[in-house]
From TrEMBL:
It comes from Mesorhizobium tianshanense. It comes from the Bacteria. Keywords: ATP-binding, Nucleotide-binding, Transport. Residues 7-248 form the ABC transporter domain. This is Branched-chain amino acid transport system ATP-binding protein. One of its GO terms (cellular component) is plasma membrane. GO terms for molecular function: ATP binding; ATP hydrolysis activity. InterPro entries: AAA+_ATPase, ABC_AA/LPS_Transport, ABC_transporter-like_ATP-bd, BCA_ABC_TP_C, P-loop_NTPase.
Amino acid sequence: MNSGAILEAAGLTKEFKGFVAVNNVNLTVERGSIHALIGPNGAGKTTLFNLLTKFLQPTHGAIRYQGRDITRMQPADIARLGLVRSFQISAVFPHMTALENVRIALQRRRGDSFDFWRSEKVLSKFNSEAAGLLADVGLTEFSDVRASDLSYGRKRALEIATTLALNPEMLLLDEPMAGMAQQDIERISALIRRISKNRTILMVEHNLSVVASLSNRITVLARGKVLAEGDYAAVSKDPRVIEAYIGA
Ligand code: ADP
């Protein structure tokens, strides 16, 4: 294992009824990096992301996280090891406030029963921890707003706060900027930069200007294979990458 690596995939392959969506991919994510996975539509990004987060089982290949083989582990088990995928928006409880959502995520991490919350002292301790996480994502003034009443961008920030409640060492973000207005993109970019200070981030992202400004390492996929790897300056000049995007 490469000493700087936190996550390594070797020979990762996923076939769907004979169609090879991810084809013998080797990927190394360095500890502390913001690593982006890009590529034209149909390149296999979502499939690879689902393999790495254990939402899909690979046909062949292996995945190691912090030196440990996680190839056959379940998402909940790898979350306990510190590798966490951001929740889908639907996993945020719409009728609960931002604060309550984060508190429940903290509760999930501890695996406590609901009875536990009947203690006022414990409740106030976790409320203040939840408030701290909301401050980290810039949602302090929205603590008491129901999740369903938050703007799209703020819902995503809340989703990141509930993910941070699990105290991950590595965060996997699935298109964090999807469907966002420019103002939200700037806010979430600043947030990702901030939370990356003591964490590793791997994200699938379509918005190439976001990828250019945030990532220090980029893997370009095309037709299920790694086409190029490097920083943005390098991959954006690569003729094979240009051709894959134009030809897509
Ligand atoms: P991307 O995220 O880069 O757009 P995907 O990983 O979604 O690409 O898809 C890669 C290829 O695998 C596509 O051709 C897609 O149709 C195919 N694919 C993805 N999921 C399935 C599935 N469950 N069954 C069959 N084919 C699939």
